[in-house]
Design goal:
- By secondary structure, this protein is mostly helical.
- The protein has one domain.
- 73% of the residues lie in helices and 4% in strands.
- The protein has helices at residues 2-16, 24-39, 46-71, 74-88, 91-106, 110-117, 130-177, 189-213, 216-226, 235-246, 274-307; strands at 249-251, 254-256, 259-261, 265-267.
- The protein is globular and about 55 Å long.
- InterPro entries: Cobalamin_biosynth_CobD/CbiB.
Amino acid sequence: MSVLVCFAALLLDQWVGEPSRWHPVVGFGRMAAALEQRLNRPQGQGIARGLLALLILVVPVLLILLWLNSWMPEPLWWVVELLAVWTALSLRGLAEHGGAVAEALNKGDLPLAREQVSRIVSRNAQALDEPGVAAAATESMLENGADAVFASLFWFLVAGVPGVVLHRMVNTLDAMWGYRNNRYLRFGRVAARLDDALNWIPARLTAATYTLLGNSSLAWRCWRTQARSWDSPNAGPVMAAGAGALGVTLGGPAPYAGGIKQRPTLGQGAAPDARSIQGAITLVRQGAWLWLMSLLAGVGLWVAFVGGGL
C-alpha cells in the first residue's frame, strides 16, 4: 500500500503541482523563522538553543501524527499518507524552476536566466555568466532531487508519515539555519547534523540511481574519486555521480554575497548548459519512477512466492 501511495502522490504532484496556498512547509518555515528570532542570541548557548528550537517545532507535530494514527480508520489514514507525501515532494516544482532557467538560456536571455536561477540558489546570480547560471541550476536539480524527491520517498517507505514529515521538517530547518556564519554556526548545528544523518542513506541511493541512469562508468568514477572533496558528506556523492552521469563539469568557483567560494571540481566533460539542466531533471524524474516500479515489482514477486508457498 505504501508503494501505491507514492505512485498516487507522484501522479498528484505531476497533475497539480505543489499547493499554491496553505502549504504546510511554508507555514512551518514561518514558525521556524519566528522562533529563531526569539531564541537565537549571539552570546553563547547557541547549540542548546538550536536544539531547544528544533524540539519545540518537531516533537509536537510528530506526537499529533502518532495520536492520529492510533485511532484513525485505515482508509482515512491513507488519505493522510497521500497528502503527506504529496506536500513533501516537489518534483514538478523542481522541474518548473529548472526548466525556466533552461528556457531563458536557450533564448539567449542571460538577465532572465539570472533572475530565474536566483529563485533556486543562494549565490550571487548577477555575477554569473551563462555556464555559471547553467552550473548553478544543474547542481540545484541534482541536489534538490535527492532532498525533495528521493529522501521523501525513502523516509515514507521506511517510517511512514512520521518519517517523511520528520525529514521534511529537519531538511527545512537545515535550509534555514544550516549556514556556516556567525549567526547560525552554533544555533543551526543540531539541525544540520540531524539532516546529514537523515540524508546519508537516501543520498547514496540517489547517487546510485544517477549512476545507473546516466554514463555509469564515468558517474561511478567521479563518485568514488571526487565526492570526499566536497564539504557536504551527502551532496558530494549526489553531485559527483550526477555530474559524471551527465558528462559535465560542475563545482569550481562560485560567487556569493561574501565573495568567491572556491569549490572542488565535480564530474568530467563539457561546461554545463541548458541541456545539462534538462538532463538533471530527467535523471530525477526517471529515477523516481524507477524506484517505485522496482519496489512494485519486488512486492509482486514476494506476493507470488508467498502465495505459491515458495
